[in-house]
Amino acid sequence: MKILVINAGSSSLKCQYFVSQESVASLLIERIGESRSKATLHYGTTTQKVSRELAHHHEALALLVELFKTEHIIEDFNTIDAIGHRVVHGGEHFSKPVMITPEVIATIERVIPLAPLHNPSNLEAIRAFATHYPAIPQIAVFDTAFHQSMPPHAYSYALPLELKEKYAVRRYGFHGTSHSYVAKEAATMIGRPLETLRLITLHLGNGASAAAVAYGRSIDTSMGMTPLEGLMMGTRSGDIDPAIIPYLVRNGFEVEAVEEMLNKASGLKGICGTNDMRDVIAHAENGDENAELALSMYTYRIKKYIGAYAAAMGGVDVIVFTGGIGEHASKVRKMVCESMAWMGMELNSSVNEKAVEHGGVISTPTSSVTLLVIPTNEELEIVRQCERVLEEV
């Protein structure tokens, strides 16, 4: 099948084109709505860059079509089997990918308050394609869908129940496409059915989340109603005492300033001045005490979630590291696994240092918990989910 995968941001449009689950081309358009937008197309051994003013996503779509046709990547867009859209938030309404209809669009609109920075952009791209190519099926794949299998005791907050019923205040979780992909890849890698495994999947990038995947279903995840909850991240605080927020407000901080700080100036950046884990590790190894503290805090939080999720599942068979940091920072993996032998986790240190490009098993043969590094591929997972939707039509 021919599937075009779209990931639309407020000022960006990422695209990958797949034929028979193989990536053929990728395009990144940045600075949409600014005076000078730029596009970078990768196709085979070719890289093409274009700079042009693009006022909105409709003009970005026109540029996408122009570049793909000029390079003979797609001669006729109506030959595409489907367009798969990454949609950040589906609320409680979507537990699987769905064909986009006016009713689905209306539902995505209704949950905009839960993802005000993302869902409007996702809808812009959906509407742009619907306007110009109404005959092409469009499919929404939701970041939150994989975690809709969480039981009420896991997704509910200990707040007055009316807040959940009236304002949809509950845990939703994110990175679901990545967690779903690596869980299935892990099962394939070790040759066991996913339905027989208890996994902890660690998506560690600038944004970071953990998931407890028991017998093929997400039963808990670290991100909550928003992506701010959970692990310490690049610029996000993760878990904090909620009383800190009114305390700061009473001491002169504006609510918006506190929200900005928690999302964009906390985490690694707040502790040591940088959210790039490569720099954090380099500074820590050179004796920077703040970087050492940031690294210790970061890995300590992950350890706590591993322990909590092992308890929730009654044990753990596999732990997966993925995402930019999970895949490339052997130091982080080593620190997470240190002093965890009591859980049956035994890291093969020499293999861990080499598992950078393609991942693989990084535990010892005697480890009762299999430790894996698996490069995530959210776009490919979207393609696979789109194909399943098309097969059901």
**Secondary-structure content class:** alpha/beta
Sequence of secondary-structure elements:
EEEEEHEEHHEHHHEEEHHHHHEHHHEEH
Task: Identify low-pLDDT runs.
Answer: none
Rg calc: 21 Å
End-to-end Cα distance = 14 Å
> Total number of helical segments?
15
How many domains, as an integer?
A: 2
Could you tell me the number of beta strands? Answer: 14
Task: Tell me what the structure shows.
Strand 9 (198-204) and strand 10 (208-214) form a beta hairpin. By secondary structure, the protein is of the alpha/beta class. The model has no long low-confidence stretch (mean pLDDT 95). Helix 6 crosses helix 15, helix 10 packs across helix 11 and helix 11 (289-313) crosses helix 13. The two termini are 14 Å apart. The chain folds into 2 domains: 2-142, Nucleotidyltransferase, domain 5; 192-378, Nucleotidyltransferase, domain 5. It has an 8-stranded mixed sheet with strand order 5-4-3-2-1-6-8-7, sandwiched between helices. The protein has helices at 57-70, 102-110, 119-132, 152-155, 161-167, 176-190, 244-250, 255-264, 267-272, 277-285, 289-313, 323-328, 330-337, 349-354, 378-392, and strands at 2-8, 13-19, 22-30, 37-43, 46-52, 82-87, 98-99, 138-142, 198-204, 208-214, 217-221, 318-322, 360-361, 370-373. The radius of gyration is 21 Å and the shape is globular. It is built from 15 helices and 14 strands.
Task: Please provide a brief summary of the model.
It is built from 15 helices and 14 strands. With 393 residues, the protein is of the alpha/beta class.
